[in-house]
Design the sequence.
C-alpha cells in the first residue's frame, strides 16, 4: 500500500512543479496565450486535488501505529496545494486587470484599487481556508483516535472471548473429572459392601461348622 502512496507522491511532485512554472508565466504571456494557460492550470489544479484525495484515502488505510509520518507528509502537501491556489488567484487577478486595461484603455488607477480589494478578499479567504484546514485536521485526528479506541476494544473483546472459552473448557474438564471420581467412589463402596457380606457369610459358615462338630461329639 505504501508503494501506491509513494507513486501518488511522485505524480503530485511532478504536477505541482509544472503548475508552479505555468503560474509564473501567466502574467508575461499575450492575452490569447494567457487565457489558454489559465484554463490549463485550472485543469491541472483539479488533477492535483484528486491526487491529494487518493493519497488521503491511502493514509487512512495505514495501521494507526505507522500513520503518523504519512499524516505529516499529507499536511505539507495540502499546505503546498493551498499556496499554489493562492499564487494562481493572484496571477489571475493580475491577468484580469491587464486584459481589462488593454480593452478599456484604463490608466491603471482603478485597477490598482480593485486589485488591492481583491487581494484583501483573497487573504480573508486564505484565513478562512486555514481555519477550515485546522478543523479538518482535528476531525481527522479525532477519527484516528476513535479508530484506535475501536481497535483496542476489539482486541480486548477477543481476549475476553478467549478467556471465556478457556473457562468453558476448564468447566467441562472439571465435570468429566467429577463424574469419573463419583464412579470410582461408587465402585469402592460396592466393593466394600461385597467384602462385608462375604465376611459375614464366612463367619456364619465357620460358626455352623463348629456347631455341627460340637453336636456330634
Sequence:
Amino acid at each position: 500500500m505504501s508503494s501506491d502512496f509513494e507513486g501518488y507522491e511522485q505524480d503530485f511532485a511532478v504536477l505541482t512543479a509544472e503548475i508552479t512554472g505555468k503560474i509564473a508565466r501567466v502574467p508575461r504571456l499575450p492575452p490569447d496565450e494567457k487565457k489558454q494557460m489559465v484554463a490549463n492550470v485550472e485543469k491541472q489544479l483539479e488533477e492535483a486535488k484528486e491526487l491529494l484525495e487518493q493519497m488521503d484515502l491511502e493514509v487512512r488505510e495505514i495501521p494507526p501505529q505507522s500513520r503518523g509520518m504519512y499524516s505529516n507528509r499529507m499536511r505539507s502537501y495540502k499546505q503546498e496545494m493551498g499556496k499554489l491556489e493562492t499564487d494562481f488567484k493572484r496571477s489571475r487577478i493580475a491577468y484580469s486587470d491587464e486584459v481589462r486595461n488593454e480593452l478599456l484603455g484604463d490608466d491603471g488607477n482603478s485597477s490598482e484599487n480593485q486589485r488591492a480589494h481583491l487581494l484583501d478578499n483573497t487573504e480573508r479567504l486564505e484565513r478562512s481556508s486555514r481555519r477550515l484546514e485546522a478543523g479538518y485536521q482535528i476531525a481527522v485526528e479525532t477519527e484516528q483516535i476513535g479508530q484506535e479506541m475501536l481497535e483496542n476494544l476489539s482486541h480486548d473483546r477477543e481476549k475476553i472471548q478467549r478467556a471465556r472459552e478457556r473457562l468453558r473448557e476448564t468447566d467441562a474438564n472439571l465435570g468429566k473429572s467429577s463424574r469419573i471420581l463419583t464412579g470410582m467412589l461408587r465402585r469402592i463402596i460396592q466393593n466394600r459392601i461385597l467384602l462385608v457380606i462375604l465376611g459375614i457369610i464366612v463367619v456364619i459358615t465357620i460358626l455352623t461348622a463348629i456347631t455341627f462338630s460340637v453336636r456330634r461329639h
Observations:
- The chain has a mean pLDDT of 79.
- The helical segments are 2-25, 31-60, 67-104, 109-216.
- The chain is about 90% helix and 0% strand.
